[in-house]
Amino acid sequence: MKQENSKDKASNNSKSEEEFQVLAAYDINHVTNDVYQHNFGFKPTQTAIEKLTPAQLDKFGANTWLLSPP
Predict the structure, then answer these.
(1) 18-63 pLDDT tens trace
(2) The pLDDT value given to residue 16
(3) What is the C-alpha separation between 29 and 7, in angstroms, rounded?
(4) Is 31 helix (H, G, I), strand (E, B) or coil?
(5) What is the pLDDT of residue 57?
(6) Rounded to 5 degrees, what angle do the CA atoms 56, 60, 63 make?
(7) CB 33 within 8 A of CB 44
(8) DSSP string, 3-68
């Protein structure tokens, strides 16, 4: 389930930079997943996030989760 991407840098108004690593991406829509793969180099897991268990998410050891509404 773990899908890694190379470390990237995010910039906030050019005042600070933070390193981050994408550990996983999830989406239920197959078209969205194809576009994500084209743009970022790996394909998200196609599933509804409400089916993920706390144990599955804890395995990543992530300190931040970014989510967006549909």
Answers:
(1) 888 889 999 999 999 999 999 999 999 999 999 999 999 999 999 9
(2) 65
(3) 26
(4) helix
(5) 93
(6) 120
(7) yes
(8) -----EEEEETTTEEEEE-----EES-HHHHHHHHHHHSSPPEES-GGG--HHHHHTT--S-----
β-strand partners of 20? 8
Going from N- to C-terminal start, the domains of the chain cover: 8-50
Residue type, 20: F
Residues facing 48 on adjacent strands: none
Residue 17 half-sphere exposure, CB side, CA atoms within 13 Å?
5
Q: Which residue has the higher pLDDT, 42 or 68?
A: 42
User: Computed over its alpha carbons, how large is the radius of gyration of the chain?
Assistant: 13
